[in-house]
Amino acid sequence: MTRIALVVTDPEFYADDPDPDTPLILDSLLSADVLAEMVVWHDPEVDWSAYDLALLRSPWDYPLRPAEFDRWLQHVAPLTRVLNEPHMVRWNMDKHYLDDLASAGITVVPTSYHRSPGSAAEALTRAAQEGVTGGADGPAHVVVKPTVGSRSRLAGLFRADDPGAQQLAEAIIADGAAAMIQPEVPELSEGLEKAVYMVDGQFTHAIAKGALLARGGGMIGGIYGENAQVVEVTEEEKAFVRQVLKAVMKVNGTEMPLYARIDIVDTARYGKVLLEAELIEPLLNLHHAPGVEHVFAEAIRARA
Ligand SMILES: Nc1ncnc2c1ncn2[C@@H]1O[C@H](COP(=O)(O)OP(=O)(O)O)[C@@H](O)[C@H]1O
Ligand SMILES: [Mg+2]
Questions:
Q1: Which-ligand-closest: CA of 143?
Q2: pTM
Q3: Whose CB has fewer CB within 10 Å in the chain, the N or C terminal residue?
């Protein structure tokens, strides 16, 4: 019988932030007679070679311990099949990957990367001097966020001359990542980001999650909260997403990712842009898309 590990983390980690997807996938796999179970990625007792496939589902604490996660990937890769592929996952852990995708022809939000406070300060001064970002009047705003991060951890939206922007950049650098600085994309602040889900390269569903960052730092409403709504995706948007997946495969020399969440936004300034290609542990929002859990479970089974 096929054995599949759905890779998660400690139950306590989900106390305030439950993973709604994995139980649905688990049930679907079990009903298809697959021996699937949730397994904690950093549990030293696990015999990974006992599984036909380890599916990275919600190891959501990896941005807090990236070096350990990286070592873990190297440890398990020879023991079982890991999906998405470890090589692609490691590349996807650091948002410098956006540069690779830009080189492969994908439009991304203009981004500068900073490993020192001085370099971040220069970029912020430049952004403040350049002024207007989104076409509207008023002072330039920027988003500062870490190269290794998810769920908006250490991400903030500030006026470029707000000392809080520099402080956040320094906090990110002290935390061990590089700080990314981007002009504010007004359409993101308006909540027009679309997360487009692809299983085996096929569109399954798409979600708008609303605006997340409060002006002046922190989250709207004080905590991270995606207000997920199912949205329609146009043919042009699907074509853009397929181009992103092609670029991902080309850059990595790998096959089609089993799953992907491609975050895009249509902008007045840049046209369609890629914000993020999440290939590691996306929240799938399956409870908003009844039936997709079976599509995903079947795709998992087919690869095991
Ligand atoms: N350049 C930007 N302009 C405006 N909002 C942004 C910008 N970059 C990110 N955001 C907001 O911050 C959120 C988190 O940023 P993102 O790059 O997606 O990182 P994460 O990996 O934390 O999801 C986005 O979903 C979006 O709402
Ligand atoms: Mg995101």
A1: 1
A2: 0.95
A3: N
